[in-house]
Write a structure and sequence with these properties.
By secondary structure, this protein is an alpha+beta fold. It has 2 domains: 4-130, Alpha-Beta Barrel (N-terminal domain of MutM-like DNA repair proteins), CATH 3.20.190; 139-281, Helicase, Ruva Protein, domain 3 (Orthogonal Bundle), CATH 1.10.8.50. Helices cover 25% and strands 24% of the residues. The chain contains 6 helices and 13 strands. The strands form 4 sheets. A 5-stranded mixed beta sheet has the order 2-9-5-4-3, with helices on one face. Strands 1-7-8-6 form a 4-stranded antiparallel beta sheet, with helices on one face. α1 packs parallel to α5 (200-224), α2 (148-156) packs across α5 (200-224) and α4 packs across α5. It is elongated. It starts with a helix and ends with a helix. It binds zinc ion. Zinc ion is lined by residues 244, 246-247, 249, 264, 266-267.
Length: 283
C-alpha cells in the first residue's frame, strides 16, 4: 500500500512528466477499476489537457478542463510511466497516453492493480463529494496545522489503542502500517498501549515522532528517486526487520486489531500489566 512518503514522490514525478500534456489515447483493460460519475467513459479525456495533479488523502486527482480523474490505489494499486506500445502488464487497469510536449517523447500513464481493489472515478471538475470514501477528514500530518495542541485534542477522547488511532484516516492524513511501526518505535511506545494511558511526555514524543518519521521518510524516498511503481522501504528500522537497531534485541510481532505490528520489547516496553493478556491473543 502506498503511504504518504510514496505518494508524495509519485505526485512529484507525475507532475514533472505529465502536467500540461494533452491526452492522445486511452484504454481500459479492467473495467472494475473505473467508475464514471459523469455520462460517458474515459474517452471523454481525449484531446483534453492535464492541468494539475493534486493529492487529497490517499487519492491522486488528475485535473482536466471540466473533468477530474480521482484515483485511490487502495492496497495494491500503483502507477507506472511507460513508453506507448510497451506490452501490457497483467495487472493493468487502465492507461492514458499523453502527447509529446516541448520535444519530449510521448508517455503513457498506466494504473496497475494486482487485486483490482483500487478505484478511479471520473467526475465533473471539483465534484468530489460524489466520490465514495473521498473525504476521510483527517489532518495532514505534514501541514503546519498539525500542531502539538491539535494533536493532543485528537488524542484526548480516544478509547482505542495507540496504533489503531495512528491508522485512523478520520483523525490523521495519513499513516499506514509501515510508518505506524516506525513512529511507535521512534517514540518508544508499545503498539498495544491505550491512548488514555499516554501521559503528557508520551504524547509529546508521539507527535514529534509522527512529524519526524514521515518528513525524513519523504526526503529519503525522494532522494532515492526510484521508478514510481516501486516502493522504497529498505531504510525502515523495525517494520519486517529481525533485530532492533538501537539495542539489538530480537524484534517481536504483535497483532493489533487484526494488523501485524513490529516492535522492540526493550525499547517499547509493556509497562502496563493489563496489556499482557492482550498479547497472548495476538501473534
Ligand atoms: Zn530496542
Amino acid at each position: 500500500m502506498p503511504e504518504l512518503p510514496d505518494l508524495l514522490h509519485v505526485l512529484a514525478r507525475l507532475r514533472e512528466r505529465l502536467a500540461g500534456r494533452a491526452v492522445e489515447a486511452e484504454r481500459v483493460r479492467d473495467p472494475v477499476v473505473l467508475r464514471c460519475l459523469v455520462r460517458g467513459n474515459l474517452s471523454l479525456l481525449l484531446g483534453n489537457t492535464l492541468q494539475a495533479i493534486e493529492r487529497r488523502g490517499h487519492f491522486l486527482i488528475f485535473r482536466f478542463a471540466g473533468l477530474d480523474l480521482a484515483v485511490n490505489p487502495m492496497l495494491a494499486g500503483r502507477f507506472r510511466l511507460a513508453t506507448p506500445g510497451e506490452p501490457d502488464e497483467a495487472a493493468l487497469g487502465f492507461a492514458i497516453e499523453f502527447r509529446p510536449r516541448d520535444g519530449d517523447a510521448p508517455v503513457e500513464l498506466r494504473y496497475l492493480d494486482d487485486k483490482s481493489m483500487g478505484k478511479a472515478y471520473l467526475v465533473a471538475a471539483g465534484d468530489w463529494s460524489a466520490i465514495p470514501a473521498f473525504h476521510a477528514g483527517g489532518i495532514d500530518v505534514l501541514s503546519k496545522e498539525f500542531t502539538r495542541d491539535r494533536f493532543f485534542s485528537l488524542l484526548r477522547h480516544r478509547k482505542d489503542q495507540v496504533r489503531v488511532f495512528l491508522l485512523d484516516k478520520k483523525a490523521l492524513d495519513a499513516i499506514g502500517n509501515a510508518y505506524a511501526d516506525e513512529i511507535l518505535f521512534a517514540a518508544g511506545i508499545h503498539p498495544k498501549t491505550f491512548c488514555r494511558k499516554l501521559d503528557h511526555d508520551d504524547s509529546v514524543r508521539l507527535h514529534d515522532a509522527i512529524v519526524q518519521v514521515i518528513t525524513e521518510a519523504a526526503a529519503e524516498v525522494e532522494a532515492r528517486n526510484a521508478p514510481i511503481e516501486e516502493k522504497v522501504r529498505d531504510f525502515l528500522k523495525v517494520r519486517r526487520k529481525e533485530t532492533c537497531p538501537r539495542c539489538q534485541s530480537k524484534l517481536r510481532v504483535a497483532g493489533v486489531k487484526g494488523m501485524d505490528a513490529w516492535y522492540c520489547p526493550r525499547c517499547q516496553p509493556e509497562t502496563r500489566p493489563g496489556l499482557v493478556d492482550f498479547r497472548k491473543t495476538g501473534k
